[in-house]
Please model this.
Amino acid sequence: MIYSLFKSLVFIAFLFAYIAVLVGVPVWVILGIIWLIKRKNPSKGLTKAVKIVSLILLFTLPVWIFLFVLAGSTMTLM
Model:
């Protein structure tokens, strides 16, 4: 019984991490592409937005990498 409970918790963790990776990585890539475009052609009103996007990218990348590793590790446990 404890093993089946552990297995269901691992499956829920895997599902959560996998959905987070599937949603987060494309958003992260799109923000990065927008940041690169705006960095090469900045206008005066968008420089603050570029700084905000770059900070978001800087702080969320390790979270998405961790969730991707978590999804992979829980997948091997299944």
Residues 2-40 form the longest helix (39 residues).
